[in-house]
Specification:
By secondary structure, the chain is of the alpha/beta class. 41% of the residues lie in helices and 14% in strands.
Length: 260
């Protein structure tokens, strides 16, 4: 199973049919539900995205929820996303500029209360696995000031997601951390995710609308002859929950709020 999983994670394409969302529904229903306010009293959260759009896909709902609650959310874009598949004569530089603009628009949609701040590292898209030291150095001060760090799951399959996930793990041992899958929903099956470490965070209808609006800002990834975010991929991000990998040290800090 591990070898098959590794091969699928390493060789998937956005154009593959992928796993139907209906396959995930019964699996998701069995995951422990944790409301975002149960994650503790927070003043500042750092959400780290390998590319512009990962923050909205993987954590847009909780970003909107935290913003509405007055929490300062910093979104860190490690690359400009310029190496993504393009159509026609769009250059890498032009796509990078467009995705930076899309990120600003998405952050505006997610900042339903407190404004979401953007930090750009401008590291090489597609090359983060070879920029570990620089990545850790750039992320360290942004992680150090956060009460909670949200970053990609290192098992997500995409090399940049793995590099960011690994880097954050190395520098955030003293911080509670949530890790979000993005591409694992597409190439994976329920057995591929660490079920015992997952939490399911319900998102409100207003946060869901903000997330949908943020994702819609990424026209560069949704349009053209070869869209990265196909309808089958996007189906995984229209849920009324978001799912995160939470290590035991983070789970131990969860304190349910009395809502009686």
């Amino acid at each position: 199973m591990a070898d098959v999983t590794s091969e699928r994670a390493a060789t998937f394409s956005h154009a593959d049919p992928g796993t139907d969302e209906a396959t995930w529904s019964p699996f998701l229903a069995g995951i422990d539900a944790v409301h975002f306010v149960d994650l503790g009293p927070l003043e500042r959260v750092t959400v780290i995205a390998p590319h512009p759009d990962d923050e909205s896909l993987g954590a847009g709902g909780v970003i909107a929820g935290w913003s509405a609650a007055g929490v300062q959310v910093d979104v860190v874009a490690c690359t400009d996303g310029g190496a993504a598949a393009t159509t026609g004569s769009t250059s890498r530089a032009a796509l990078g500029r467009r995705r930076r603009t899309e990120l600003a628009a998405a952050a505006h949609q997610l900042g339903v209360g407190t404004e979401v701040a953007i930090h750009r590292l401008d590291l090489p898209d597609g090359g983060l696995s070879g920029a570990g030291r620089e990545l850790r150095s750039a992320l360290r001060p942004l992680v150090a000031r956060a009460d909670l760090v949200v970053s990609p799951w290192s098992g997500d399959g995409h090399p940049d997601h793995r590099a960011v996930g690994d880097a954050v793990r190395q520098i955030s041992a003293d911080r509670p951390r949530l890790e979000y899958p993005v591409w694992a929903w597409h190439w994976g099956l329920p057995d591929d995710l660490p079920a015992g470490l997952l939490i399911r965070v319900p998102i409100t209808s207003s946060a869901g609308r903000a997330k949908a609006a943020a994702i819609a800002c990424y026209g560069s990834q949704r349009g053209g002859d070869d869209p990265i975010l196909t309808e089958r991929v996007l189906a995984h991000f229209r849920r009324d929950v978001e799912v995160f990998v939470a290590e035991p040290s983070t789970r131990s800090r969860i304190r349910p709020v009395d809502r009686s």
